[in-house]
Specification:
The chain is an alpha+beta fold. The chain is built from 28 helices and 15 strands. Strand 3 (237-241), helix 10 (246-257) and strand 4 form a beta-alpha-beta unit. Helix 2 runs parallel beside helix 7 (137-174), helix 3 packs across helix 7 (137-174) and helix 18 (452-470) crosses helix 21 (509-531). Residues 70-141 are annotated as: Disordered.
Length: 704
């Protein structure tokens, strides 16, 4: 049995001949039309379906959705008229005046016509001549109706096939599949039979235009990405800069515009390179920026622009593409260069601890609980007495000194150190520290711990260098990929390893505020580089709560730094408990009260967050006011005086308790940082009328 697939319902159909045998005479007219239609179009439909199966896997598409989409498309009105006339003609042919001979003549005349005649009959441009076999009015009418029905079914089948292709194309594009929609759309719309002829309106043409627009947008995006790709070179470009140099910033932007990859050497971070620069370029070469193309000193920004205008810059870039860097060329910074983290006096206590860990650490039971990787106070005293040749009292004092230097602590934080059955654990053996903290060194650091002020100064200097080298001028967009592979970030990882044994209690309010704001921003960048940007609220909660550093012997997450220290141990939004309880020793580090302006200084990599800045203890209050002013004037607060509406950042909604009670107090607090004219007008209106506050939608997208 010949089987044809129905384009609308995708189910097998019987051929016209079988239907003619099974149907009653009342349906023979429809059989004649269907027979001609299937004979002329079954190969075309199969060809389209075969081509689709070759290109795509068989999709799982809801049949009802496709039917609804096809039925929503308005087919030409002529087809509707044809269907009505067809029913009328059926009634006439079923009357006694018409016999089987007339019906047979209609079928034979219809089979003898070629495809061109069918198209001409469909368009209504030519009519059969009076002496032709089709001069019979009933036969001629049925020929026209059969061609019209053929066209109707062809359009329906193409819509069905194209709908499946379009939906599958959308899914493949979501999965980054390679697919050219325009080729298949063109093949399905254009038919060799209709070339050069005027045809009725085709609904596929609209779908084709929509697909072409989508493909064009993808091509434009690919072109833009190709334009942003850096030039691949065998050679090397070295850029010498220093902190706070405006000319250096312009030189970076110029090299970025030329899509030239370079290695930046900041002479404030690498002071030894300043001497090398003077030897290569002369005594006056300490002025930066200075650009080297391999071993050749090109000069500063002015010289590069002159080369670009004269056309010589393209020749030098071509030379960099083809030629590798010789030995005479300046080298990029190597690991540990001018880094104080690996330099200093040896800590004798660290050497003692290293030997202790190998001898007394094991799993033990204490108060009906099992504690892993710990030791008892008596075992520590016995080891110190034997290894250091000390009396027991002297060994206890040495053990307490080790505990005060944050090498180990009580498993339940009950005491500093006592001789007996109390259990203690080394800091890096703690499960939370080893699994969630990302600044624990591998092994014991043998260098004596430095004061927190010195570590904070080095971190601040490095933070400024990273901001200038790897962020946009406004500070909101960060080149995370370049940061991850840079020597500056590797140095940052070495510096934060020194934080696990620092003392934080003696820090002043200004020192503590500047240090923890800068550390929070770099810690957020570190979290994004390690875990990636959080996609949803659950991922954000995990990043803020589980990405931790060990600072002063205790673990601090991003949330603990923001809400526990900087906000003075205040509850974070949608939480019932404070970060630190009364027995938590970290509460001793918390600031005495919340710092509301810090919300416009801490950045967690979002587009709606404030720009990145570096803060110093000496001018922390001034810098916080500048950061708040720039954020609010840059779109954080928009005032419509005519309609009495204020569009304000979502930050004021989350932390309203830090800015005052009620929306009116929040607006008064925020208005002081706007332009003077807007601020005065807003304050005057707030006295008599009530403003409606609309909180802006917070964009959690990555600011890369």
């Amino acid at each position: 049995m010949d089987v044809v697939t129905s384009p609308k319902h995708n189910v097998p159909m019987k051929s016209a001949e079988i239907i003619a045998e099974e149907e009653s005479p009342k349906h023979n007219v429809e059989t004649a039309c269907a027979k001609t239609l299937e004979e002329s179009n079954v190969e075309e439909i199969k060809t389209v379906e075969t081509r689709d199966e070759d290109v795509y896997p068989k999709p799982i598409v809801e049949t009802e959705d496709i039917i609804d989409e096809m039925e929503s498309i308005d087919i030409h009105n002529e087809d509707k008229t044809v269907s009505l006339e067809c029913e009328t003609q059926q009634d006439k042919m079923l009357s006694p005046s018409n016999d089987d001979n007339d019906e047979h003549d209609s079928e034979s005349s219809h089979d003898s016509k070629d495809d061109v005649d069918e198209d001409e009959t469909m368009d209504g441009k030519e009519k059969p001549k009076p002496d032709s076999p089709d001069s019979n009015p009933s036969t001629s009418a049925w020929t026209e109706k059969a061609a019209a029905i053929k066209n109707f079914v062809r359009l329906k089948s193409e819509v069905a096939v194209h709908t499946v292709m379009r939906r599958l194309s959308g899914r493949m594009n979501d999965e980054n599949g390679v697919y050219d929609a325009r080729d298949d759309a063109t093949k399905s719309v254009e038919s060799p039979k209709t070339e050069g002829k005027s045809s009725i309106w085709n609904p596929l043409s609209y779908l084709k235009m929509m697909q072409n627009d989508a493909v064009d947008k993808v091509e434009v995006k690919n072109v833009e990405e190709a334009e942003l790709e850096t030039v691949v070179m065998k050679g090397r470009i070295i850029l010498y800069t220093r902190l706070g140099c405006e000319a250096c910033r312009e030189c970076r932007l110029y090299l970025h515009g030329k899509r030239l990859r370079y290695v930046e050497i900041n002479i404030d971070i690498y002071p030894s390179r300043k001497q090398d620069l003077e030897k290569i370029g002369g005594s006056s070469s300490s002025d930066v920026p200075k650009v080297f193309f391999n071993e050749e000193l090109v000069g500063g920004l002015k010289e590069i622009k002159e080369l670009d205008e004269s056309g010589e810059l393209d020749e030098k870039i071509k030379h960099l593409i083809d030629e590798a860097s010789p030995r005479e060329a300046p080298l990029p910074p190597f690991s540990g260069e001018d880094d104080a983290s690996s330099k200093g006096h040896v800590d004798e206590l660290a050497l003692i601890v290293r030997k202790m860990k190998r001898c007394i650490v094991k799993d033990r039971f204490y108060k009906l609980r099992k504690f892993k990787n710990c030791f008892s106070g008596s075992d520590a005293v016995d080891f110190l007495s034997s290894d250091q040749c000390l009396e027991r009292d002297e060994a206890i004092e040495v053990a307490r000194k080790l505990a005060s230097q944050l090498f180990f602590q009580h498993v339940l934080e009950e005491n500093l150190f006592e001789d007996g059955n109390h259990l203690y654990r080394f800091l890096d053996d703690d499960h939370v520290v080893s699994s969630q903290c990302h600044n624990i060194p591998r092994g014991i650091i043998e260098i004596k711990p430095r004061p927190i002020a010195e570590i904070a100064s080095r971190l601040r200097l490095l933070y400024r260098a990273i901001l200038e080298a790897y962020t946009s001028p406004d500070g909101k967009h960060v080149d995370y990929r370049s940061i991850h592979g840079s020597e500056e970030f590797a140095r940052y990882l070495r510096i934060i390893q020194e934080l696990h044994r620092v003392q934080l209690v003696d820090m002043s309010r200004e020192e503590k505020l500047a240090f923890f704001i800068n550390l929070y921003n770099m810690m957020a960048i570190h979290a994004i580089l390690v875990w990636g940007h959080p996609a949803g609220p659950l991922e954000r909660t995990k990043m803020f709560g589980e990405f931790k550093y060990v600072i002063g012997g205790y673990t601090y997450s991003l949330s603990a730094i923001q809400h526990g220290i900087i906000r003075g141990n205040q509850r974070q939004p949608y939480h019932l408990a404070k970060p630190f309880n009364e027995k938590d020793k970290r509460s001793m580090v918390a600031l005495p009260y919340a710092e509301p302006l810090s919300h416009f200084a801490m950045v967690c990599g979002t587009r709606s967050g404030p720009p990145l800045r570096c803060f110093s203890p000496g001018e922390i209050d001034k810098e916080l006011m500048e950061a708040t002013r720039d954020f609010l004037r840059g779109g954080g607060l928009l005032v419509d005086l005519s309609s009495k509406v204020a569009y304000i950042s979502k930050i004021f909604n989350w932390y309203a308790v830090d800015f005052g009670n009620g929306e009116k107090s929040v607006l008064k607090h925020a208005s002081t940082y706007l332009e003077p004219q807007i601020s005065e007008a807003l304050l005057d209106v707030l006295v008599d009328t009530q403003f409606r506050v609309v909180y802006q939608t917070y964009d959690w997208g990555l600011n890369h």
